[in-house]
Design a protein that fits this description.
- The complex is a heterodimer of chains A (about 250) and B (about 475).
- By secondary structure, chain A is of the alpha+beta class.
- Chain A has four helices and 13 strands.
- Chain A has one domain: Clam (outer membrane lipoprotein receptor (LolB), chain A).
- Chain A has helices at about 1-25, 25-40, 125-130, 245-250, and strands at about 45-55, 60-70, 70-80, 85-90, 95-100, 105, 135-145, 150-160, 170-175, 180-185, 195-205, 210-220, 225-235.
- In chain A, a hairpin with a 2-residue loop joins strand 11 and strand 12 (about 210-220).
- The longest helix of chain A has 22 residues, at about 1-25.
- Chain A is globular, with a radius of gyration of 20 Å.
- The N and C termini of chain A lie far apart (about 65 Å).
- Chain B has about 475 residues and is an alpha+beta fold.
- Chain B folds into three domains: about 1-50 and about 320-470, no CATH class; about 60-135 and about 200-290, no CATH class; about 145-200.
- Helices cover about 55% and strands about 15% of the residues of chain B.
- Chain B is elongated.
- The two termini of chain B are about 30 Å apart.
- The chains are: A alpha+beta (about 250), B alpha+beta (about 475).
């Protein structure tokens, strides 16, 4: 009986203490966890809508996105009708775009990585995820802050010298319980705030909690913003590497 | 009256001296007027080229378009505003355009181009792109065929080598570049035309199809029936991409534009850029195009243009060209200044000689009782008469040449013409009709003569009779 009590205590400890150990993560692990939660550990499939807001007009683009790890990504525009069928492919460090109206496959030069994607405030780099929030930065825990009633880690990410990233440093607020990117401030090399991203409307998708609405506000432009809404997300479904091919760019619907 | 008579007689006492002095003034006036006329005429011609083939005299634009030429800075084409503009007494037609930039490609060649959406029918009022389509192109193949003909003289074959790959939209220009006399031309030209003939199609509203500039077509290695791919950013950041069949090739008198222009029917262009019914500019064809009419029309129109749009005059739209011409104009004025300086010394030299020659004569006249004042006034009249003679003769000869030249510009032929074209100019010297510049040039010469009078009059008043008699 005594042994059983000991065993019970052990199990109790396993249940209560180990997660507590888990709470004691390094800043790098926190970022990695949040990143993997949003992008999937292996693969992800997402249906999204992007609304570009400008002082005098706004417009919405709908698209599907498949990713596999950091290396492969494919994006297909599904609306509006005129742009439907355009695809963007990333394989390792190379990127292409396919435009069905002119039947042309165009390779994107690295110089275009910091340019707006489809006229939005998102850069090609944001969409194709060339740089990694985990590997390209040094992470430092700045403390904990409450944001919209959620307790957050506040982490400063300083870009590594050799990393090919367009930001100087970032400050991210990550939900302590669910590992959600709730807010990110992105600064350029000179330390000026370039844009703020906020995640909201937490929803359950494919079994995990996700911020289903991301708002991106450029710091210098008045009345400009881009909103991304996640309509549907699936994680870690098997996607073969051959899915991310130039042939598939032209075929996929 | 007596003085004038004396002066007149004095002039013809020594005919040669009078003629030499007035000849130097004649040349001053003649060269100054011709130089100015050619300069002003050539500027005007170049401005006309750019205005009539591209910008037009006045454009209505979205207020931000000029600073940021993107498709977002457009405005809808409205019948109401069109009518308001057409109601103006000097506006003959309004020509809608949608202008933007794109990357054009054909296979591995690509180039940034200006995409101009326009209504081919309406352009007939202004740019007349229709008439600028290439009629003859001397491709290496065509030249080979022509060289194979026995009736073509050697001289023409040599010239043909110089115009390889050039295109022409009229046979008269072709004749000039080949330096053919009319008689020769009637024999040889039909042959050359036969081999170099270029079949162009037209573009119409509602039908996909483009015209491209001659130089651009050669750079992208595109011909009639080939497909050009355009890719750009459209209205509100959308993707603009399309492929179009080339229906025709146009040769514009502006090499800069010829290099990068693609014409599309307006509605097709609006579809490409996702800008339904939007235009970037409304170019106005005017009835009276002189500076004053353009300015008053601008003033009248500025009251009826809504705040979202603004009026642009051709000078603002062609700022670079206007300042280039201004710089060239300043250079021309410096040349004129040097010309005047040379001639002023020529006139002064003859006057100096004249005074020295007549020193004894002056001494005698004063000694026998002629007042110095009277002598000086006779002398002054002589000089004024010489000046008038020179100015009138110069203005007369220059005017007759200019009056003829206004309707018959000097057109260069053969190699000289090709050299001009390579530098981006039309091989032509145009004349500017008789105008205000006449007054300023003539006044300057009059001033020069008056300056020259000072010397003999001073000499007369300062003359010591005893010394003069001994001279």
């Amino acid at each position: 009986m005594k042994h059983r009590t000991k065993f019970f205590v052990l199990i109790l400890m396993a249940v209560f203490v180990i997660p507590a150990f888990g709470q004691d993560l390094t800043p790098r692990e926190i970022i990695q966890k949040a990143d993997e939660k949003f992008n999937g550990e292996l693969t992800s499939t997402a249906v999204m809508a992007m609304t570009i807001v400008r002082p005098t007009w706004e417009r919405t683009i709908e698209f599907k996105n498949w990713t596999s790890g950091r290396e492969y990504a494919l994006t297909l525009i599904t609306a509006p009708a005129k742009e439907k069928g355009q695809t963007f492919l990333k394989r390792q460090n190379e990127m292409w775009t396919w435009n069905p109206t002119i039947s042309r496959l165009i390779k994107l030069p690295p110089s275009m990585m910091s340019q707006g994607w489809m006229g939005s405030d998102y850069t090609n780099d944001d969409i194709l995820k060339e740089s990694s929030v985990v590997n390209d930065y040094e992470h430092e825990l700045m403390g904990e802050e409450e944001l919209n009633g959620r307790l957050c880690y506040k982490i400063k990410m300083l870009a590594k010298e050799e990393a090919a990233v367009i930001w100087g440093h970032q400050i991210r607020w990550i939900d302590k319980k669910d590992f959600l990117f709730l807010k990110s401030e992105l600064y350029d090399e000179d330390g000026y705030l370039v844009r703020t991203e906020t995640g909201s409307e937490v929803k359950l998708m494919d079994g995990r909690l996700i911020t289903s609405r991301i708002e991106l506000v450029p710091a210098e432009e008045d009345g400009q913003l881009t909103i991304i809404e996640m309509k549907e997300m699936k994680f870690n479904e098997p996607i073969k590497e051959s899915f991310f091919s130039q042939q598939n760019m032209k075929r996929i619907r | 009256m007596n003085n004038l008579k004396l002066a007149w007689r004095n002039l013809w006492r020594n005919r040669r001296r009078t003629l030499i002095t007035s000849a130097s003034i004649f040349f001053a006036v003649f060269f100054a007027l011709i130089m100015r006329s050619v300069q002003l005429g050539t500027y005007d011609h170049m401005y006309k080229n750019v205005i009539e083939s591209y910008t037009g005299y006045i454009q209505v634009q979205h207020k931000d378009f000029w600073d940021e030429k993107i498709v977002d800075n457009t405005f809808p084409e409205e019948a109401g505003m069109n009518k308001l503009l057409l109601d103006d007494k000097n506006v003959a037609a309004t020509i809608p355009r949608l202008e933007s930039f794109a990357l054009a490609s054909n296979g591995h060649q690509s180039k940034g181009v200006v995409v101009m959406g326009m209504d081919p029918e309406k352009e007939k009022h202004l740019s007349k792109v229709n008439d600028k389509r290439v009629k003859y192109r001397l491709s290496p193949a065509a030249i080979n065929m022509i060289n194979g003909e026995e009736s073509v003289p050697e001289k023409v074959k040599e010239m043909l080598a110089l115009v390889e790959n050039k295109s022409y939209s009229s046979s008269s220009r072709l004749q000039l570049d080949l330096d053919l006399e009319d008689k020769e031309a009637s024999e040889v030209l039909p042959l050359i035309e036969k081999y170099s003939k270029f079949e162009n199609g037209s573009i119409h509203m509602g039908e996909p199809g483009v015209w491209v500039g001659d130089k651009l077509s050669q750079y992208l290695e595109l011909g009639i029936g080939d497909t050009i791919v355009l890719i750009s950013q459209g209205y509100h950041g959308s993707t603009a991409a399309g492929k179009y069949e080339i229906k025709g090739i146009v040769k514009l008198p502006l090499p800069d534009l010829d290099n990068k222009i693609v014409y599309l029917p307006l509605d097709i262009c609006q579809e490409l850029f996702n800008a339904e019914n939007m235009i970037t500019s409304l170019s106005l064809a005017l009835l009276n195009t002189d500076d004053k009419s353009v300015n008053t029309t601008m003033e009248r129109l500025s009251t009826i243009i809504p705040g979202e749009q603004k009026l642009m005059e051709w000078r603002e739209m062609n700022e670079l060209m206007v300042s280039q011409m201004d710089a060239d104009d300043k250079g021309g004025q410096i040349m004129l200044g040097i010309l005047y300086l040379v001639i002023a010394f020529g006139v002064f030299g003859t006057v100096l000689m004249l005074t020295a020659e007549r020193k004894r004569e002056f001494g005698v006249l004063v000694a026998i009782g002629m007042q110095k004042k009277k002598l000086a006034s006779v002398m002054t009249m002589e000089m004024i008469l010489i000046g008038l003679l020179g100015i009138m003769a110069g203005a007369f000869v220059a005017s007759s040449l200019i009056l003829y030249g206004v309707n018959h510009p000097i057109v260069f032929k053969g190699e000289a013409a090709l050299m001009f074209e390579d530098m981006g100019f039309e091989p032509q010297l145009a004349f500017w009709p008789i105008d205000n510049y006449y007054i300023s040039q003539i006044l300057i010469v009059v001033f020069m003569v008056l300056l020259a009078i000072i010397y003999p009059t001073r000499k007369i008043f300062g003359m010591k009779v005893v010394n003069a008699l001994r001279a």
